[in-house]
Write a structure and sequence with these properties.
Elements (H helix, E strand, L loop, with lengths): L12 H37 L5 E5 L2 E4 H32 L6 H17 L4 H8 L3 H18 L7 H10 L10 H31 L10
Antiparallel strand pairs: 1-2
Helix pairs in contact: 2-5, 3-5, 6-7
Length: 221
């Protein structure tokens, strides 16, 4: 008796694999879609809120990019500004070596002196700063640097009574009348001391620059 052969119906394996791959790709795309949308939204918000970091201004809708502004500023005063930053860095490095600091009270005292001085002339310090385009924080930074320089190089500077009296006599027409002569002498003494510090500073910073290793990675004309 002959045995009847039966054949199983088989599905094409390749078709099943392709369908599975397509389903996997579709699932991946769907799962990543919210991520892509989220990134796009974050980037959009970043550009919107921080557009000032990229665009300095717009003229009839045409942007002037901040990079272009920086390039132009560098052309006009890049070397001078870089030299100023190098000098400031050298001063602060030297102050750190010698453990020299300027505390908040010292800066505030100088601010108070400046306010008192301009007030006597019928002016306000903040108004003068605004006219010069300087903020109060900028002024504090300048004072802190000046006081640091003073502590670095003013140790041996002496102002005699003769120098003070000679200055007052020579500039009596330009000095405001003060009922307190002791206060006037103290003001003149501070001014003379700053002059001597300024004169000594030029030689001091030149010597510090010679000893420092300064590498210019950007060259300005």
């Amino acid at each position: 008796m002959a045995v009847k052969k039966t054949t199983k119906k088989m599905s094409p394996p390749k078709l099943i694999e392709v369908e599975k791959q397509n389903n996997s790709i579709s699932t991946i795309k769907k799962s990543k879609l919210p991520l892509f949308i989220g990134i796009a939204v974050v980037l959009g918000l970043f550009i919107y809120f921080f557009k000032g970091f990229f665009v300095a201004a717009t003229v009839n809708g045409q942007p002037i990019f901040r990079f272009s502004l920086i390039q132009e500023l560098e052309k006009q005063g890049g070397k001078r500004t870089l030299d100023s930053l190098i000098t400031k860095t050298l001063i602060l490095q030297e102050a750190k070596k010698q453990n020299i600091t300027v505390d908040k009270k010292e800066v505030d005292n100088e601010i108070a002196k400046a306010e008192d001085s301009v007030k006597k002339q019928g002016q306000q310090l903040d108004a003068i700063l605004a006219m010069q385009g300087i903020s109060r924080e900028n002024l504090k930074e300048q004072i802190r640097l000046e006081k640091t320089i003073e502590k670095l190089i003013a140790k041996d500077i002496q102002i005699t009574d003769k120098e003070i009296n000679d200055f007052i006599e020579k500039n009596k027409d330009n000095l405001s009348e003060a009922s307190d002569s002791a206060k006037l002498k103290e003001t003149v003494k501070d001014q003379l001391k700053r002059q001597k510090v300024s004169e000594k500073f030029q030689a001091w910073i030149a010597d510090i620059q010679k000893q420092a290793k300064i590498n210019y990675l950007v060259q300005y004309p």
